[in-house]
Structure formats: C-alpha cells, structure tokens
Amino acid sequence: MKSPLKLASWLVAAGRPEGPGAPLNTPLVPASNFARGGERTYARSDGTPTWEALETVVGGLEGGEAVAFASGMAAAAAVFDLLPVGAQVVLPQDCYQGVVALAEAGAARGRWRVARVPLEDTAAWERACAEADLLWLESPSNPLLRLADLAAICAAPRKPEGILVVDNTFATPLNQRPLEMGASLSVHSATKLIGGHSDLLAGVAVAREAALAQALRKARELAGAVPGALEAFLAVRGIRTLALRLERAQENAQVLASRLAQHPRVARVHYPGLPSHPQHALARRSLKGFGTIISFELEGGADAADALCARVRLIRHATSLGGVESSLERRSALPGQAHLPPSLVRLSVGIEDVEDLWADLEAALG
Ligand SMILES: *Cc1c(COP(=O)(O)O)cnc(C)c1O
C-alpha cells in the first residue's frame, strides 16, 4: 500500500469510511463476531473495521502492509514466533529492554541463539546480514539514542528468508521509512508516538512483502494478540495529529537538549540533533527530524537523578514516552537496565510551551 499523498495529509485522510451518508470517522466496532455471508466471521481471525483503519493509516505511512497488535511487544513476539528452531538472532547492544528480555527468554529455552552488536558497527551488521535469521535494529535506540546506518545495513545481502526488522517507534514513519531502504519490517509500539496520549497499548508491524504480513496475521490469530476495539479507535484518533505533535515536540526537544548540554549539573546529553552527538552527521543525513526523546547524565550520580525526578512538577515522573505530556525517569532504576550509566535520565518531550518545560527542569536541577 503506497500513499499517493504527502504523509502529513495521508495520516489525516486515510482509513475513513467512504460513500454517501458514511460517518467521517471509522466507528468503534466492539464486535467479536459478524453475521455469516459477509467478508468476516470472527474478529480474532478476520479483523474489525476499527483495526483495519489503523492498519490502513500506518501501512500507507510506512509504504507496506500493516498488521495491528495488542501492544508493541505483541508485535515483537509475533516476529520472533516466525523463526525456525535454532535460529540466529542479532540484537543491538542498546535496545528496548522488553525485546531483549523476550530474546533472552527464548534463548534460555534453546529456542534460538542471540548475538549482540553495537548499532554503530555497520560492518558487523553487514556481516551478520549474511548469517542471521533475524536482525533486529532499533534506530534511534532506547534509551541511548544511538543510530544505525540503516541505508547501508538494509542494502547488505541477507540470508534467504532472513528478516531485517527496524523498530521505528522513536523515529516514526515521518522521520524515517525503513521499508524504502530495504528492511523487511518496520515495527512500532503504537502505545508511544502513534497513539500520542498515553491512553492505550497497541503495536503495529508493517511488512514490505505481502507474504510476511500474512504470516504475521496468522501468528496474531493463533496467539490471540489482537488489538482491543477501543485501543485501535484511540490510536487512529491519535495518529491524525502525529505530524503536528511531532513537529512541536521535536522543536521543544532541540531547545531543551541544547540548554541541558550547557547546564553545570548535566554531565552529558544524548540527542541526535546536537552537534556533539557522535553520529550527528548520520542523523542529519538519514532522519527528517531528530525526535522527541532526549537522555542525559547528571553530575552527582543516581542520587542526583532521583532528586531531579522527584522535583519536576509540570514534567511527570513516569515511565513510557511519546505522549503529549512530557515525562522522565531514571532508566537504570528499572530491571534489566543495570548496564546503563546510573544517572541516565530519559526525557520524553511533549507539546507544552518550551519555556515552561525549561523552567521546570531548571528549578528541579537546583
Ligand atoms: C515501548 C517500546 C516497545 C514495546 O511496546 P509496548 O507497546 O509497550 O508493548 C518496543 N520498542 C520500543 C522502542 C519501545 O519504546
């Protein structure tokens, strides 16, 4: 499915019912089953109009065939489920902890083998492409905002049947379109920027090839990893404003990242939009925008970071990211994150007035 419109128009216009008298918005259809004789019988196997609207919008943005899931992790689990026993899986060293935990749990049961490669090591990824059954890339990465040279890695020859996934949650299809570069799948936690309001859990996997989309639809049906009707409805409602939200939050993030980098209590800022980011040149070349997530390290270690998290007022001390409201947390306080710098704070920048956000951060930094 290719969008004939500019992406910012497609995400407003796509997936709406057509015809005289049709409602402009796709209705929330809370149905498990449908009367015989039509195109669907049972929602878990055949879908609902509400999830299909979400699939239409996201599929067009990514330029592929989308399959909606109950969460980003449900989408990831469906991808791993496609692997043959004994498969070789390659993950980045910096990667969303849930995906790492999923991969390690399967490896511990002997289901597959896992290797970890730094995102920056393009040659190692290119070599891995020739051997791996699943290459899982995340760029920019969570939470260190590292980048992979996706254009180079996606173009490297792959094992037949090898699947290359890009977790595109941080960039969104408005900043980066992995399928165009040659990725097999672009995967989203729609819980984050696509939904945009911290009011739902959903995931989407978008495939370049129809056969892979079909395999994922089957995996979803068998695992029952289907999105809820309300969640799909809210995700469609949320994605309508993605272009505006992203633009505003990104502008805010650039300002906050620059100011944080100059603050005496801040030891280091990780943001692809800063010239000090080690991969800033790659970011300029490969991303349309630098995203809404910043991470930074404080002078004074974990205690200083905990104090900051406790003192912010407008910015909420909470996990997750991608909502209209700004939030932050100290990442190494979470299970499975002990490898991160102890004072690393991940800040999800929202759409508030940037001066209010800065005043809050400055006061909390003390
Ligand atoms: C949150 C997140 C996920 C998991 O998504 P859920 O919707 O929470 O299941 C996957 N990848 C990234 C980069 C995330 O931030």
From TrEMBL:
Which EC class is this protein assigned? transferase
Gene from which the chain derives? metB
Q: Which residues carry this modification: N6-(pyridoxal phosphate)lysine?
A: 192
Name the Enzyme Commission number(s) assigned to this protein.
2.5.1.48
Q: Give one GO term, molecular function aspect.
A: cystathionine gamma-synthase activity
This protein's species is Meiothermus luteus
Name any cofactors this protein relies on: pyridoxal 5'-phosphate
This chain belongs to the protein called Cystathionine gamma-synthase
Keywords recorded for this protein, A-Z: Pyridoxal phosphate, Transferase
- Similarity annotation: Belongs to the trans-sulfuration enzymes family.
Q: Which GO terms describe its cellular component?
A: cytoplasm
What are the BP-aspect GO terms? Answer: cysteine biosynthetic process via cystathionine; transsulfuration
